[in-house]
Amino acid sequence: MNAESPEVRELSLTRYIDAPPETVYRIWTERTGEWTAPRPYTTPEVDYDLRPGGRANFTMRSPEGDDIPCKGVFLEIVPNRKVVTTDAFTEGWVPQNAFMVATTTFEPEGTGTRYTARVLHWTEEALKQHEAMGFHEGWKQVADQLAELAETEA
Question: How far apart are CA 35 and CA 31, in angstroms?
């Protein structure tokens, strides 16, 4: 990373979900394929090993049938509160082209959860690329999809 302030390379969103953190975390970790791709994209494959250094792999599929593999590792897991992933490595700490580090938190708020996704990019160019790919719309949509599932179960 370079010396510029990390906030300069951060994209984030926060949303209140009317379900307890335990429910939101469980949906996030166990039903990933149902919410993690903005519709009409799908997630036909999820391969998670929920531990620091474990696989954080999934594949998104476009409406045209193109697969977009997303491979990384978990850096930190605090059950029901926090998940940190990166695409800087694959399983076994094998380096690959780094794009981002994502920190997802599930904070209790009243009877629900303050869900926050905070994404730090290795470079300003990567941040701009992520914005151009539709970060704000796409990550909001997947947060809405996550909330829909969690609130149905709450």
Answer: 7
